[in-house]
Amino acid sequence: MDIIKCEKLGFTYDNKKWVLRDINATFQTGMLYGIYGKSGAGKTTLLSLLAGLETAGEGKILYKDKDLAIMDRDEYRSNEVGIIFQSYNLLPHLTALENIVLSMDISNLKVKDKDKKAMSLLRKVGLDEAKANRRVLQLSGGEQQRVAIARALSYDCDMILADEPTGNLDAENEEEIIELLTKLAHEDDKCIIVISHSPSVRKKMEKIYYLENGKLKTE
User: Is the CATH code 3.40.47.10 the one for domain 31-41+73-218?
Assistant: First the structure.
């Protein structure tokens, strides 16, 4: 199913130089996408536009056939899209479980037992109860990224945007995280869009877009 589409999308920071121009792309659920390009090519900018963190200078983004520009973007970010960062962006003074519950609180998710749902999500990404109740700084980098993925899943979104999700991880953890994202695409029918510089991650992507000179090309 098509979930998000870019139509003649363009973006500029200063109304002079276009970072992105005439971007056309369609993303579907059940698929794992990679976005590649040199540093400064606009990869993170494109992800920010898809996440509703930036506003297009021209063209539009359609999410489930609705123009993102006229949607409530705070609600969109809180309920429709999960974002995973290289630096995890977890609250270090909270446990893994508490980070997930807080995410559900922020998105006003109506769940009878949030602790139970949070624990279910943490098990889904391979973390047991003992690790769920540790402060996140007591977890390894790979485990923290698993918590971040569980957090992204906590409000049942259909799309996950991952900005260098394995950038701080060793090869073994990188492979495990990409396998987890692949499983979420195929078994849970999520649309997974990944920015990465890693050649090994690139090999796992099912469709690759390449950004160059503000233009998006397919490989």
Answer: no
